[in-house]
From TrEMBL:
Protein name: Fe2OG dioxygenase domain-containing protein
Annotated region described as Disordered, given as residue ranges: 352-374
Keywords: Dioxygenase, Iron, Metal-binding, Oxidoreductase
Keyword Oxidoreductase: yes
PANTHER family in the cross-refs: ALKYLATED DNA REPAIR PROTEIN ALKB-RELATED, NUCLEIC ACID DIOXYGENASE ALKBH1
Length: 374
């Protein structure tokens, strides 16, 4: 791979990013993962991982605990040489608190008025309560073998706040529902600790990955204010994340994202191309931590976390045994900024959610630049 990354376009004329995407997506023979950076262990860093200095005074221990985070001084935060503005925090969550956020992603944020992929071809009545319509089947011992799939198993994306329009690749004032207060609070605390006070969570895209899902090469540029960071939170199974350059064909760096890991793309890294070619089982030492997600958590006064019932956790833990959920939280508008009357096509996101199993793209992806061969 190192040899391949040396030039931007290979002999076959295929760009290096696309080639690496295919390399890591490949099943047979399985790809060599030795060059994938693992922030949890420091593996394959090649000296590229550097410590990142957090603003410890920005968030008190109690404020951190209220959203399920460890004291800031205990976080393991890193930067990556060659990627100024890219910040990686290796699972800053308190033991047991990820369960709450997983439950929010599966049970709460999937509810109306939020928008999801199923709304694209089903009536609002039929997508009314994805969780309630799915739990019984998921809890039955033969559920994962059974056909047809539950709505929860068919969920691919949910949008919050300003709902991203996959066709026009824009946000608009006309398509907005209140952003969840708990997720806003989590986002504000993380971004403040990373040196970005006053972050306003205005939109989020939640991606639900099954073991054979991937996310194509794209850049998130539809937001109108790129001076605000893009915050990414991952739960469940692990993923390989490819972080590229400002040009689509620039060679990317591969890294693992495990459950609880947090990433910020800010400054010069805010508009870098990236992709998720592969979902992988959580490594054994982290898988035990996933099983422990339901352990009782001492809740602080003022905490946004609520206890997760055993029944709910039973469904969540079955789901994340084979799935990954990622939330990207975005500030769309700068202070005092408003949407232009007519949004134009320069704010485009070329991401597309591949589902290798269905052979169909779950997101409209009209720009061929964003298309990834599967
Ligand atoms: O799943 C991930 O880690 C990345 C998600 C992403 O890039 C996006 O939603 O724009
Ligand atoms: Fe993205």
């Amino acid at each position: 791979m190192a040899k391949m990354a040396a030039s931007v376009v290979t002999e076959s004329g295929e760009d290096v990013f696309r080639k690496m995407f295919k390399f890591y997506k490949r099943r047979e023979p399985p790809p060599d993962l030795r060059e994938v950076i693992d922030f949890s262990s420091g593996a394959a860093s090649g000296g590229k991982i550097v410590p990142f200095k957090l603003d410890q005074a920005a968030v008190s221990d109690q404020e951190a605990a209220c959203v399920g985070l460890r004291p800031i001084r205990d976080w393991r935060a890193f930067g990556l040489q060659g990627y100024p503005g890219f910040i990686f925090i290796s699972n800053p969550f308190l033991r047991g608190s990820q369960a709450f956020w997983v439950r929010q992603c599966l049970k709460t944020y999937s509810q109306k008025p939020n928008v999801c992929n199923l709304d694209m071809h089903m009536s609002p009545n039929d997508t009314q309560d994805i969780w309630a319509r799915s739990v019984q089947a998921i809890r039955s011992p033969i559920s994962f073998k059974r056909q047809p799939k539950t709505l929860l198993e068919r969920l691919r994306w949910v949008t919050l706040g300003y709902h991203y329009n996959w066709d026009t690749k824009t946000y608009s004032a006309n398509s907005y529902t209140p952003f969840p207060a708990d997720l806003h609070m989590l986002s504000v605390r993380i971004t403040a600790a990373c040196g970005f006070p006053g972050f306003t969570s205005e939109a989020a895209i939640l991606n639900y990955y099954r073991s054979d899902s991937s996310l194509g090469i794209h850049v998130d540029e539809s937001e109108l204010d790129h001076s605000r960071p893009l915050l990414s939170l991952s739960f469940g199974q692990s993923a390989i994340f490819l972080l590229g350059g400002p040009q689509r064909q620039d060679p990317p760096t591969a890294m693992f994202m495990h459950s609880g890991d947090v990433m910020l793309m800010s400054g010069p890294s805010r508009l870098l191309y990236h992709a998720v070619p592969r979902i992988l089982p959580a490594p054994p030492q982290l898988a035990t931590c996933l099983e422990e997600l339901s352990c009782a958590l001492a809740l602080q006064m003022g905490s946004v976390l609520e206890p997760v019932s055993e029944e709910d956790w039973d469904v969540c833990s079955r789901y994340i045994q084979s799935s990954r959920v990622n939330m990207t939280v975005r500030q769309v508008l700068g202070p005092g900024q408003i949407f232009p009357l007519q949004t134009d096509d320069k704010h485009r996101m070329v991401g597309c959610h591949d589902d290798a199993n269905s052979g169909k793209r779950k997101r409209t992806c009209s720009d061929p630049v964003g298309t990834v061969d599967t």
